[in-house]
Amino acid sequence: MTSLDTLGAPVPTPEAPTWRDRVERAWQHPLFVVTCALILLIVVFAIVNGQPFLSAANVRNMFLAGSIMLVLAVGVTYVIITAGFDLSVGSVLVFSGVVSMIVMQRVGGDGWTTALLGLGVAIASGLLLGWINGLLVAYADLNPIIVTLGMFGAALGLAQVFTGGQDLSGMPTAMSQFGVGRLLGIPWVVLVAAIVAIIAAIALQATAFGRHTYAIGSNKEAAVRAGIPVKRHLAVIYGLSGLLAGLAGWLSLSVYGTTNISGHSLDALTAATAAILGGASLFGGVGTIAGTALGNAIPVVLASGLVIAGLQSFWQQVVTGAVLVGALYLDRLRRLRSLRRSSSASS
Questions:
Q1: What is the DSSP string of 205-234?
Q2: Which of 10, 214, 231, 250 is the most exposed place for a label (fewest CB within 10 A)?
Q3: pLDDT tens digits for 8-33?
Q4: Are 288 and 294 in contact (CB under 8 A)?
Q5: Domain coordinates in residue numbering, the chain
Q6: Which residues, 6+ apart, have CB-to-CB distance to 213 below 8 Å?
């Protein structure tokens, strides 16, 4: 079927997409691929591990671990959308938790006054370190990987100096009750992570702040010409990543009751894997919080399934690295398909 243009010449009407076109588009969508991979993982581990994997206790543990990681991954997603990277979030989490625990122990008390003071200290500590990253990246124009790698070592080193390399414990009773508490059967930590993700998603999709974040990642020079305060915005983004790492540090304390200094070395890579699996691109300008939340489930399910299957802990690091490489390969394939579609549309 054709129509006529203003000069009377026939203009072909675009054909409606066939069911094969729709299937192909769905298959190429990153969220579809991740969802299929997640379902496959759950089925495989349910068959291999049986009841221990599907038990209520293990599902709850996966949600708790995934919630803490999701808080980290939300900040990392914002950074990746700006075409940056943050390798420091795991160490910032540890440092914030250590400083928070030290302050709470010095103040004393088992009530919410001490616990909330610790929360404020953790968030402020993370925000400070994140801002340092942002200032160096935005105003000193240093490579974000180098800057955040340096912060990774500095924050972890300071945490070990403050504690003598020993994990701290002994948090307020109110905080430990929060870590195991539930509302309508849902753990408080899971609710906090969900609220953080929802607010971050709304800010990214429906505010000028989110539009500026995408613009900077898509084309930094064009964003400058458009009048966006790029340097200030980048400093805020890295500060946000640090703030969320501080919050995750406090949540981790409330759940596990200890600073666990040596247990977060892979957190930055895991958070980045979640963002990339969810559709974010290391080239910037692409990514969603919903995708990150879905991608975050992959490493969590993998870690739980491997532990129950009896694999030694260092194999988890191997698997995490392999999944990250796979996520980067998917990101490359998505970018190549996008470039082909752009070139074919222009021709």
A1: HHSHHHHHHHHHHH-HHHHHHTT--HHHHH
A2: 10
A3: 555 555 555 666 666 656 556 667 77
A4: no
A5: 53-264+281-286
A6: 78, 81, 82, 204, 233, 237
